[in-house]
Give the backbone structure.
Amino acid sequence: MGLPFEGIEVNIAEDGEILLRGPNVMRGYYGHPEETASVLQDEWFATGDVGHVDKSSYLYITDRKKDLFKLSNGKYVAPQQIESLLKQSEFVSQVVVVGARSETAYGIDRS
């Protein structure tokens, strides 16, 4: 994405979601207080995008939050990053990462 505009603050939530605040960031959905409450967190607008900020303050969007998988250890995985790494192989032309509820969904038994 690049550098944020002057006056815009960027924060990355614990789960990787990009949070924004500033004078030109939305104040809420007109006439929809429940929807507003779902995207505003302590004056930060939760964008629904996942990303990071580098040492030079450049903002990168890497995925959508709704596309993340939550692992059993509580960490989140962005499938788009995994897919792009797999597609770097000359032997792979199409990739899809699918989350399963547990290892037993695939008949894996670690006992």
